[in-house]
């Protein structure tokens, strides 16, 4: 120790019977920087070493700090410190150390010290005793000390266990080789003070972390009631999860309708985060399927991670997004930043509790978005249904008036047609008026067809069902349209399957439905074009296709082709024929669909169920076959 009068009192004020020169309040003020919650790990460690080499502290000539690495399970060299020759007080020494560079008062010794890593089994002498018991110890330096101390030197060791777990060792040396009771008390006082400072720092860090995580949850809760869209909310949740846990990156997936994960948001260094997110897909699918949190501390041992993805990760936590027992997606964060050896790069229970809370809120956001989407679609469907109902009511009124008008107009049209045909027969081949009469006849035929279609919209009564051959009905309709097919030079591709069974149906109405669809195809196809007719059995249905390669009218919407009065055909019609065809097929329990495929601009497919037909074809005795005959219970004697 320095023989000069000290500038501040020793830690053990009663040692040697010397009088206390300062009050306890004064000593607390000098030691206050050790308990400054704004200090980080490095500042606390520098101040502890400055106190260890202070004449009124442990009085070491030089001191070294070894810190326990949580991830490597070894004591790693951290910081070297040499005592000064000045007469600074403890308060001044701590303040100077707090501002000191991170490599201490001897950067070269610190650099060499940081190359050392010791397991507990490597410790000897006072180091082993101090580390094993978390106490202070002194004795001769082990021979294997290397440059940590001089040979045959008296050393002291202090086991640090801040926060209830091993933190590290402070090892110092006394050049005079004398271990006195005063030094023993100074070592123990320094150990208690160091552990108290580390406990305070750890509690402050924990409070700071909990405060940050609570603020993140509050911000996400505010976002839930804000006008943010779903994509913005997902990106916000991903950012908050990464910032509050201090990770290098993360990713967020939602579950598609078919159950597969879909990447929605990623956080981390630009360029590689989306690629890494895609590489984690197999692991995400497993977490979503199981609905359980997965924490991976050794990515290389995880079979669901590819070698490239495992090489990029040091730790990973993946939490499912579960609401009402349904898994909607998963959130992953990886590579928790560890700025100090005493900090683990893995995820502790506090981090996992925060991530689960955030994922619970995020799952509610997704569920709310799903319900809102369903409500929006339901409202849209309601509005569409209301519009269709209004249109149906309007069309019903229009149809009734049109039916009366058509009935009243058919006789005058027939008279006009008859007189025009008579006049046409009286004209010679070279008569210029003959062309005008042919135009009149074509328009009369078109108007008669239009009136007939309008009358069909108001078909009364129920179908007259009989067992019929669907292929025969198709052949009959093609024969009736034969003249138009020839006149327009249409190439007919016909493929009628012999496997089509007889069906119970109204032959007149089904024939009319097919004829109307065929007429629409003839209107659409260009001269010399093609029409394909095909019938086949598909499981429990008979499917009839009518396809053409004509070009559709500009602006025509396929889903409105069956809406009467909505879109005119190429011949100037109002699509009543298609509406009538759809109505007839629906009456028989079938459907009419239209699509475009390859070289065929329109393919009309209408299906008729076979099951209902087979039930209709059973005669009365067969229908009662499953019932017991009551007469069998009373056989004649």
UniProtKB/TrEMBL annotation:
<keyword id="KW-0902">Two-component regulatory system</keyword>
<dbReference type="GO" id="GO:0000155">
    <property type="term" value="F:phosphorelay sensor kinase activity"/>
</dbReference>
<dbReference type="Pfam" id="PF02518">
    <property type="entry name" value="HATPase_c"/>
</dbReference>
<keyword id="KW-0808">Transferase</keyword>
<protein>
    <recommendedName>
        <fullName>histidine kinase</fullName>
        <ecNumber>2.7.13.3</ecNumber>
    </recommendedName>
</protein>
<dbReference type="InterPro" id="IPR005467">
    <property type="entry name" value="His_kinase_dom"/>
</dbReference>
<feature type="domain" description="Histidine kinase">
    <location>
        <begin position="404"/>
        <end position="612"/>
    </location>
</feature>
<keyword id="KW-0067">ATP-binding</keyword>
<keyword id="KW-0597">Phosphoprotein</keyword>
<keyword id="KW-0547">Nucleotide-binding</keyword>
<dbReference type="Pfam" id="PF01590">
    <property type="entry name" value="GAF"/>
</dbReference>
<dbReference type="InterPro" id="IPR036890">
    <property type="entry name" value="HATPase_C_sf"/>
</dbReference>
<dbReference type="InterPro" id="IPR003018">
    <property type="entry name" value="GAF"/>
</dbReference>
<feature type="region of interest" description="Disordered">
    <location>
        <begin position="1"/>
        <end position="22"/>
    </location>
</feature>
<dbReference type="InterPro" id="IPR003594">
    <property type="entry name" value="HATPase_dom"/>
</dbReference>
<dbReference type="InterPro" id="IPR029016">
    <property type="entry name" value="GAF-like_dom_sf"/>
</dbReference>
<dbReference type="Pfam" id="PF00512">
    <property type="entry name" value="HisKA"/>
</dbReference>
<keyword id="KW-0418">Kinase</keyword>
<dbReference type="InterPro" id="IPR036097">
    <property type="entry name" value="HisK_dim/P_sf"/>
</dbReference>
<dbReference type="InterPro" id="IPR004358">
    <property type="entry name" value="Sig_transdc_His_kin-like_C"/>
</dbReference>
<dbReference type="GO" id="GO:0005524">
    <property type="term" value="F:ATP binding"/>
</dbReference>
<dbReference type="InterPro" id="IPR003661">
    <property type="entry name" value="HisK_dim/P_dom"/>
</dbReference>
């Amino acid at each position: 120790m320095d023989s000069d009068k000290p500038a501040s009192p020793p830690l053990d004020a009663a040692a040697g019977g010397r009088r206390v020169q300062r009050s306890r309040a004064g000593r607390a003020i000098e030691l206050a920087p050790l308990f400054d919650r704004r200090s980080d790990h490095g500042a606390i460690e520098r101040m502890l070493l400055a106190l260890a080499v202070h004449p009124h502290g442990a009085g070491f000539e030089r001191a070294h700090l070894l810190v326990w690495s949580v991830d490597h399970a070894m004591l790693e060299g951290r910081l070297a410190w040499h005592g000064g020759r000045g007469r600074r007080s403890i308060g001044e020494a701590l303040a100077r150390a707090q501002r000191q560079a991170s490599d201490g008062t001897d950067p070269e010794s610190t650099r060499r010290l940081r190359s050392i890593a010791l397991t507990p089994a490597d410790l000897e002498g006072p180091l082993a005793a101090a580390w094993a018991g978390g106490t202070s110890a002194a004795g001769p330096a082990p021979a294997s000390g290397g440059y940590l101390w001089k040979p045959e030197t008296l050393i002291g060791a202090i086991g640090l266990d801040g926060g209830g777990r091993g933190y590290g060792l402070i090892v110092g040396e006394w050049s005079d080789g004398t271990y006195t009771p005063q030094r023993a008390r100074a070592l123990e006082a320094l150990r208690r003070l160091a552990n108290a400072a580390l406990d305070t720092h750890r509690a402050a860090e924990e409070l700071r972390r909990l405060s940050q995580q609570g603020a993140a949850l509050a911000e996400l809760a505010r976002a839930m009631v804000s006008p943010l869209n779903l994509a913005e909310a997902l990106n916000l949740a991903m950012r908050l999860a990464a910032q509050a846990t201090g990770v290098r990156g993360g990713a967020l997936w939602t579950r598609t309708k078919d159950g597969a994960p879909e990447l929605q948001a990623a956080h981390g260094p630009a360029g590689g985060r989306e690629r890494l997110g895609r590489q984690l897909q197999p692991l995400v699918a497993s977490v979503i399927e199981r609905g359980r949190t997965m924490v991976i501390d050794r990515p290389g041992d995880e079979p669901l991670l590819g070698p490239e993805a495992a090489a990029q990760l040091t730790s990973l936590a993946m939490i499912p997004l579960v609401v009402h027992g349904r898994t909607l997606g998963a959130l992953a964060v990886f590579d928790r930043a560890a700025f100090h050896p005493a900090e683990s790069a893995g995820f502790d229970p506090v981090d996992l509790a925060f991530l689960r809370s955030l994922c619970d809120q995020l799952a509610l956001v997704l569920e709310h978005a799903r319900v809102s989407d369903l409500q929006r679609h339901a409202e849209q469907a309601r509005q569409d249904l209301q519009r269709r109902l209004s249109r149906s009511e309007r069309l019903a009124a229009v149809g009734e008036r049109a039916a009366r008008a058509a009935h009243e107009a058919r006789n005058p049209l027939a008279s006009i047609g008859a007189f025009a045909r008579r006049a046409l027969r009286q004209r010679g081949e070279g008569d210029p008026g003959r062309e005008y009469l042919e135009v009149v006849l074509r328009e009369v035929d078109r108007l008669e067809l239009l009136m007939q279609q309008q009358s069909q919209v108001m078909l009364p009564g129920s179908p007259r069902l009989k067992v019929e051959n669907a292929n025969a009905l198709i052949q009959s309709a093609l024969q009736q349209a034969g003249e138009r097919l020839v006149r327009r030079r249409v190439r007919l591709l016909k493929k009628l399957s012999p496997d089509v069974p007889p069906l119970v149906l109204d032959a007149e109405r089904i024939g009319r439905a097919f004829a109307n669809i065929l007429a629409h195809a003839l209107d659409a196809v260009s001269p010399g074009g093609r029409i394909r007719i095909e019938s086949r059995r598909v499981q429990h249905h008979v499917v009839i296709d009518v396809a053409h390669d004509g070009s559709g009218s500009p602006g025509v919407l396929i889903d409105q082709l069956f809406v009467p009065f909505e879109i005119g055909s190429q011949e100037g019609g109002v699509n009543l024929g298609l509406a009538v065809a759809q109505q007839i097929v629906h009456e028989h329990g079938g459907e009419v669909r239209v699509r475009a495929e390859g070289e065929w601009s329109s393919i009309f497919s209408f299906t008729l169920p076979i099951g209902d037909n087979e039930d209709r074809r059973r005669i009365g005795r067969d229908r009662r076959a499953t019932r017991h005959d009551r007469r069998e219970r009373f056989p004649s004697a």
